[in-house]
Design a protein that fits this description.
The complex is a heterodimer of chains A (278) and B (578).
Chain A lengths: L20 H16 L6 E5 L14 E4 L5 H11 L4 E7 H5 L3 H10 L4 E6 L2 E2 L5 E2 L19 H7 L4 E6 L3 H13 L4 E6 L12 E4 L11 H9 L3 E9 L5 H4 L16 H9 L3
Helix pairs in contact in A: 1-6, 5-7
Chain B lengths: L9 E9 L4 H14 L3 E7 L8 E9 L10 E6 L8 H5 E10 L14 E5 L1 H5 L5 H17 L12 H14 L17 E5 H11 L2 E6 L6 H10 L6 E4 L3 H13 L3 E6 L1 H17 L3 E7 L16 H5 L9 E3 L4 H18 L2 E7 H4 L2 E5 L13 E2 L20 E2 L8 E4 L13 H17 L8 E4 L5 E6 L3 H13 L5 E5 L1 E3 L3 H8 L4 E6 L5 H10 L7 E4 L8 H15 L6
Parallel strand pairs in B: 1-4, 4-5, 5-6, 8-9, 8-10, 10-11, 11-13, 12-13, 15-16, 19-20, 19-22, 22-23
Antiparallel strand pairs in B: 1-3, 2-3, 7-14, 12-21, 18-20
Helix pairs in contact in B: 4-5, 6-7, 6-11, 8-9, 14-17
Classes of the chains: A alpha/beta (278), B alpha/beta (578).
C-alpha cells in the first residue's frame, strides 16, 4: 500500500523547468486532496494542451489529457456520467481563456460541481513564448499592446459561484484555496499566478489580499467586479462566492451515477414509447 | 377522364402549399391512414430552409410491402397555394393523374395540362366555419381526396378538423363524379406496424441500446434525434445536454464515455467539421462513442433541408493522423434502428468511434417498419472491467486483437492517464519509436479484428446478372424499384447494398464484382466518394466502375437508374441473358 504522502504520485516525474510555478500548483493540489481524503480512483483529472496541460500526468487518478481548450466539456460529460467522482479540470490561461473561452463561459453559466484550476503565466510557453490573453501584448507584431483579459471578471459576468486567485509563490495559501474550491458545491475556479521562468510576462501590478480588506463582502457581485477590474491591483484570495443550483440539479440528474443504472431496457418501458409511433 | 374504380395498391400523393399550412401534419396523418389500411408507407418532404413561407411539398407513397420510396411520378396532388409552385407541379403529375386545387387561389387556370384532371374545390368556403379555417383548408382537401380514392372516414382519425374532412367528402360526393381508384383495404390496422422517421429510429435505437448520455447542438437535419432522446431521457435515467457548439458536444460525449456511460452525439456536415479533431482523440484514447451523421447538401451551408451523399469521405478520413473508426450506413428506417444498436456494441467492443451515416432523405422522412422486437436486442460491452483490476493493470495493453481491457473511473487500481499524446501500455506519454510503431499497429488492428463483427452488405437481384450496381443509404429504395422495372423489361441486374462503409469490405466487393461486365455506382455525390473508394478497392484489374450521380438536393428516382442501365444495353449491346 502506498504511503500517505505518495498517494497521488505517479511514476512520471514532471518535466517542468525548475522554478516553474506549476510545480507548486501540483504540490498544493496533492496536499489539498490528501487533506480532504479523496481516493485516487475517485478522481477524474482533465487537462488541456500546453506546459500546464502536462499536469494530468502527475496526479495519480483517472486522468484525461485531451484537446486544447476542451477540458471543461469533457469534465462536464464525466461529471454527468458519474456524479460521485471528484472532477478537476486544469490548464493554462491560453487553454482556458483563448481557445477554450466559449466553453469556459458556458460551463461557468451551467455551474456543474467541478473544480477548475487555471495556471496563468501570461504566455504560451510550450510553443516558445507567444503572448496569451492575460498578457498586455497582442502577438507577433512588435510593440502591439492590448489590455489584458481578466478571466475571473468574465467568470463573474457568466455567473460563477466561486472565484479565487492564488499565487504559486505561497504554497500554503494556494493549497488552502484549492481545498476550498474542491469543497465548494458548484463550479469553482482558482486562477494561479504561476510564472514561466523562461518566457517571463509576470503581472506588474500590486497584489492585494482580499481577506485583508476590511468590510469586503465576497457575496457582493458589484464589489467583486470593481475589485477585479481595477487595473492597478491584482486581488488574491476568495474574491467571490455564492450559491445556486448545480447543473446536475438543474438537469434533475438522478442521485446515483448514471453509470450504475442497467443498460438493458424493460420491454414494458419501451412499449408505450413505441406505441406513439403506431 | 377518370378511370373506373380499379383497385390500385400503389399511389403517390403530394401535399403542397406554403410553409405553415400544415402540409407536414396532413401528410403524416395521410401516411398513418394508409398504414392503418395495411399498406407500407414512405414519405418525403421537399421544404426550404426557413420557418414559415416558401413552397413546401410533402410526398406520401403507399403501396403493398415493400415500399421503395418515391416513385418515378406522382399520381395526385393537393395544392393549397398554386402560386407557390409556379407550374412545377404540372411536370410532376403523371398523365391520368389529378390535382385538387383551391378554386379561389388558382391563378394558372389558363395553362393547365389537359392530360390530368383538375378539381377546383372552394376550400376557403368549406373551411370557413371551422375554428382554424387556414388549417382546415387542408382537411377539406384531404376529405375530397379520401372520397376520390376510396378511403373510409375513420381512417383519417389523426386530423384535428374532422368536420372539415366531412365537408370535403360531402363536396366530393355531390360535385365530383366517380372515384379515381380504390384500395384493397384490410379490416383491422396492423398494430405491429409502426411509422417513424430515421431520426426517431436513431434516438429510440440509442435508448434501447443503453445510451444514457447525449450531447448535441441543433442542426438540420439531425436536431430531432436530440429532441426525441431528450424527451424520453428521464424515463431511462438518461440525460441530453445542449452544448454551446459541436466541439463541446463531442467532447462532452467523450467525457461521459470515458466515465463509463454509453454516449453519443448527432450532427450533419458542418457540425462534423467542428468535431473532427475529437475523432482521432477518441481513437488515441480508445474511447467508445457513437456519432449519428445526417448528411445534407453541402458544401458549406449548402442546402440544409435537401439530401446528398457527399459526407462519406468526411467520415472515413475524419481527423488528422491515422486512427481507427467504423462507418455504418442503414438503408431503411428499420435498418437504422438496428444499426444504431450495433453501433453501440461495436463502439464498446472495439473502443473506437462509430459513425452511423444517414441522410436527409432517410432520416427526416417517415416510413413504416415492423415493431422492433426488443427481446432480440443484445448488449455487449466488450472487455469492460467494472469491479477491480490487478496492480499491474495497463489500460493500453498490447493484445492480439488490438483491444485492451478497459476500466472506468471508480474502479480500484485502474488509475491511468489517457492521453492524446502517444503513450505506452500504461498510458505514460512517450515518443519512443518502437513503442509508437507497436501502438499504432495495435490501434489499427481493430479495423481487421472487427471484420466479422461488422454489419454485412445485402445482395439484391439476380446473382449472376451482367450489370452490378453499388450503393448505400436511401438510394436502396429507388434502385430496388428500378431493378423491378428493369426485370420487367427483360434486363436483370444485381445490387450490392453497403451497410458497412469503413473498414471498406474489399473482399466482398471484389467477389461480387468479379464476374460482372458493368460496375455502376449509384451515389448522391458529384465527385462520387463511394465510387473512389470502389476504384481503390478493386484496383485496375477489377474493372472500371461507372458512376450515376445526383447532386441537385433531391433523392434518386427509379428512372434515374433504369434509364442509365437501359442506355448501357443499347450502347454496349450487352447480352443480358442469364
Amino acid at each position: 500500500m502506498r504511503g500517505e504522502s505518495s498517494r497521488f504520485e505517479t511514476t512520471t516525474a514532471s518535466w517542468w523547468c525548475p522554478g516553474c510555478g506549476n510545480n507548486s500548483v501540483l504540490t498544493a493540489l496533492h496536499a489539498a486532496l490528501l487533506e480532504i481524503g479523496t481516493q485516487p480512483k475517485d478522481i477524474a483529472f482533465i487537462s488541456g494542451i500546453g506546459c500546464s496541460g502536462k499536469i494530468s500526468g502527475y496526479l495519480r487518478s483517472y486522468a484525461f489529457h485531451g484537446l486544447h481548450g476542451r477540458t471543461l466539456p469533457v469534465a462536464t460529460g464525466i461529471k454527468f456520467a458519474n456524479r460521485d467522482l471528484t472532477v478537476i479540470a486544469a490548464g493554462g490561461d491560453g487553454d482556458g481563456y483563448a481557445i477554450g473561452s466559449a466553453h469556459f463561459i458556458h460551463t461557468v453559466r451551467r455551474n456543474p460541481d467541478i473544480t477548475y484550476i487555471v495556471m496563468d503565466n501570461g504566455t504560451y510557453g510550450l510553443t516558445h513564448g507567444q503572448p496569451s490573453p492575460t498578457s498586455a501584448r497582442e502577438g507577433a507584431l512588435p510593440d502591439s499592446v492590448l489590455p489584458p483579459l481578466d478571466g475571473l471578471a468574465i467568470a463573474l459576468a457568466a455567473g460563477a459561484t466561486f472565484i479565487a486567485r492564488a499565487s504559486s509563490a505561497h504554497p500554503a495559501r494556494l493549497s488552502d484555496l484549492i481545498r476550498k474550491a474542491l469543497t465548494h458545491r458548484g463550479f469553482a475556479i482558482v486562477e494561479v499566478l504561476s510564472p514561466c521562468v523562461v518566457y517571463g510576462a509576470e503581472r506588474s501590478n500590486e497584489q492585494v489580499y482580499v481577506e485583508e480588506r476590511i468590510g469586503y463582502d465576497r457575496e457582493n457581485r458589484g464589489a467583486a467586479f470593481n475589485l477585479l477590474t481595477d487595473a492597478q491591483t491584482t486581488p488574491i484570495g476568495v474574491i467571490f462566492q455564492s450559491s445556486r443550483p448545480t447543473f446536475e440539479e438543474v438537469c434533475n440528474l438522478p442521485e446515483r451515477p448514471l453509470t450504475t443504472f442497467p443498460l438493458s431496457t424493460q420491454p414494458e418501458m419501451f412499449s408505450s414509447i413505441l406505441d406513439e409511433h403506431r | 377522364m377518370l378511370s373506373s374504380c380499379a383497385i390500385i395498391n400503389d399511389i403517390e400523393i403530394a401535399l403542397c402549399g406554403t410553409g405553415g399550412e400544415w402540409c407536414k401534419t396532413g401528410a403524416l396523418a395521410l401516411a398513418r391512414a394508409f398504414k392503418h389500411l395495411g399498406l407500407s408507407v414512405a414519405t418525403y418532404q421537399d421544404v426550404p430552409a426557413r420557418i414559415l413561407g416558401g413552397s413546401v411539398c410533402h410526398f406520401v407513397r403507399a403501396r403493398e410491402t415493400p415500399n421503395f420510396g418515391l416513385a418515378d411520378s406522382t399520381d395526385a396532388a393537393i395544392v393549397l397555394d398554386e402560386s407557390a409552385h409556379e407550374g412545377l407541379l404540372d411536370e410532376m403529375i403523371r398523365p391520368g393523374g389529378f390535382i385538387i386545387v383551391d378554386s379561389d387561389h388558382s391563378p394558372y387556370a389558363a395553362r393547365r395540362r389537359d392530360d390530368i384532371t383538375w378539381y377546383d374545390v372552394p376550400l376557403d368556403e368549406l373551411a370557413r366555419e371551422e375554428p382554424d379555417p387556414r388549417r382546415a383548408r387542408l382537411a377539406v382537401a384531404l376529405g375530397v381526396l379520401a372520397n376520390l380514392i376510396g378511403i373510409e372516414r375513420d381512417v383519417l382519425g389523426d386530423i384535428v378538423d374532422q368536420t372539415a374532412i366531412d365537408n370535403g367528402r360531402r363536396y366530393a360526393e355531390r360535385m365530383l363524379s366517380a372515384r379515381f381508384c380504390g384500395y384493397a383495404m384490410q379490416k383491422r390496422p396492423d398494430l405491429d406496424c409502426l411509422i417513424m422517421t430515421g431520426n426517431d429510429a436513431i434516438a429510440l435505437g440509442a435508448l434501447a441500446a443503453g445510451c444514457r448520455f447525449m450531447a448535441a447542438y441543433p442542426i438540420a437535419p439531425a436536431t430531432e434525434i436530440f429532441e426525441l432522446f431528450g424527451r424520453h431521457a428521464p424515463t431511462f435515467a438518461a440525460v441530453a445536454l445542449q452544448a454551446e457548439d459541436e466541439i463541446a458536444a463531442i467532447n462532452m460525449a467523450l467525457g461521459a464515455a470515458f466515465a463509463g456511460a454509453r454516449a453519443m452525439t448527432a450532427t450533419s456536415g458542418p457540425g462534423q467539421a467542428l468535431m473532427t479533431e475529437a475523432v482521432t482523440l477518441a481513437g488515441s484514447l480508445e474511447i467508445p462513442i457513437v456519432v449519428a451523421h445526417c448528411s445534407r447538401a453541402g458544401p458549406s451551408t449548402g442546402m440544409p433541408t435537401k439530401t446528398e451523399q457527399a459526407d462519406l469521405a468526411h467520415l472515413v478520413f475524419a481527423g488528422h493522423g491515422d486512427a481507427p473508426r467504423f462507418v455504418l450506413a442503414p438503408g431503411t428506417v428499420e435498418d437504422t434502428f438496428w444499426l444504431v444498436v450495433d453501433a453501440f456494441n461495436l463502439a464498446e467492443k472495439y473502443q473506437c468511434p462509430v459513425f452511423v451515416l444517414t441522410e436527409q432523405a432517410l432520416c427526416r422522412n417517415a416510413a413504416t417498419l415492423p415493431r422492433p422486437d426488443l427481446a432480440a436486442l443484445k448488449i455487449d460491452r466488450g472487455k469492460l472491467e467494472t469491479r477491480a483490476v490487478g496492480e499491474n493493470y495497463k489500460r493500453f495493453a498490447f493484445t492480439a486483437d488490438g483491444v485492451s481491457p478497459r476500466v472506468v473511473p471508480g474502479v480500484p487500481r485502474g488509475m491511468h492517464l489517457a492521453s492524446g499524446a502517444e503513450h505506452d501500455e500504461a498510458g505514460t506519454v512517450t515518443d519512443d519509436p518502437a513503442n509508437r510503431e507497436r501502438m499504432m499497429r495495435k490501434r489499427m488492428q481493430k479495423l481487421r479484428s472487427a471484420r466479422s463483427d461488422l454489419p454485412t452488405h445485402v445482395e439484391h437481384g439476380v446473382a449472376n446478372a451482367r450489370i452490378a450496381l453499388f450503393a448505400y443509404g436511401s438510394t436502396r429504395g429507388p434502385i430496388l424499384e428500378a431493378q423491378q422495372n428493369l426485370m420487367e423489361a427483360g434486363i436483370p441486374t444485381r445490387f450490392f447494398q453497403f451497410r458497412t462503409l469503413w473498414p471498406f469490405p474489399e473482399d466482398e466487393v471484389c467477389a461480387f464484382a468479379a464476374d460482372a461486365d458493368h460496375l455502376v455506382v449509384v451515389e448522391g455525390s458529384y465527385t462520387g466518394q463511394l465510387h473512389q473508394l470502389m476504384r481503390s478497392a478493386i484496383g485496375s484489374s477489377g474493372g472500371d466502375p461507372e458512376l450515376i450521380s445526383r447532386f441537385d438536393g433531391r433523392p434518386f428516382q427509379p428512372k434515374d437508374i433504369s434509364a442509365y442501365v437501359k442506355q448501357l444495353a443499347v450502347v454496349r449491346d450487352v447480352n443480358f441473358a442469364r
